[in-house]
Amino acid sequence: MGAIASNASAGLQISLLFCFLVAAFAAHFYDDFRITWGEDKAKILNNGDLRTLSLDKISGSAFQSNKQYLFAKIDMQIKLVPGNSAGTLSSQGQYHDEIDFEFLGNSSGHPYILYTNVFSQGKGNREEQFYLWFDPTADFHSYSILWNPQRIFFYVDGIPLREFKNLAWMGIPFPTYQPMKLYSILWNADNWATRGGLVKIDWTQAPFNASYRNFDDSNACVSYWGPTTSCTTSGTRGGWFWQTLDYSDQGKLKWVQDNYRIYNYCQDTKRFPQGLPPECYISTNN
């Protein structure tokens, strides 16, 4: 989201991530975010309510939140790069935590791939990938990450795509202690992202632009000093901090995973010849 995480034209990637510090969204781009890369390619419009990132053959662009969070419900609307757009990626450090929404670009006539992953203490390899049931370049859509001490949920337009449970009692790392900031990156990943790097960016269609609006971190625990947090809205009294999926949301999750999930690491026996990761046998990743 903030990953969202996490380019356009064959071999492009947009990443929204909750990284080493996880990402969170705020309402105003002037006050709550700063440009970290490609200053001349990132614009603030509509009195601070709209942010655009751009990619050309010289470089991409990126921004990050000023706040850092230890648990949060983050929402933001994104309109993705149109046209021939392949590729996308993001990562930080060796022992980082990260919650990824990444949008892998496409060759013309093919759908975007939405990539999700969870890193904790530098351990990742928990990818799930999805097609979307709409054209993400035609209009803005909402992408959300809900991260509480028990679970991580990924949502699109309020529909759950994925649940990742805290199974630390089994020795499975879960992001619990390190505050995170929101990062969003638009960059060239045509060396790997689309069909393993076979499809390249058509630079004649550059620059490529992605748009962001309606960031919301009103449900969040803001971290000021290490793990010390101040929670907003319902905070630890209920709501998002203890959220699970009700019967209706479980049905929506199953619908997405049955019809739009195209890769699940918990079914990739070739990747794990010695046996699937232990969470695959007891969590909702199955």
TrEMBL record:
PROSITE patterns (UniProt xref): GH16_1 (PS01034), GH16_2 (PS51762)
Cross-referenced InterPro entries: Beta-glucanase-like (IPR000757), Beta-glucanase/XTH (IPR044791), GH16_AS (IPR008263), XET_C (IPR010713), XTH (IPR016455)
Main location: secreted
Location in or out of the cell: Secreted, Cell wall; Secreted, Extracellular space, Apoplast
Keywords: Apoplast, Cell wall, Cell wall biogenesis/degradation, Disulfide bond, Glycoprotein, Glycosidase, Hydrolase, Secreted, Signal, Transferase
EC class: transferase
GO CC term (a single one): apoplast
Leader sequence residues: 1-26
Domain GH16: 7-212
Protein's name in the database: Xyloglucan endotransglucosylase/hydrolase
Species annotation: Carya illinoinensis (Pecan)
Taxon lineage: Eukaryota, Viridiplantae, Streptophyta, Embryophyta, Tracheophyta
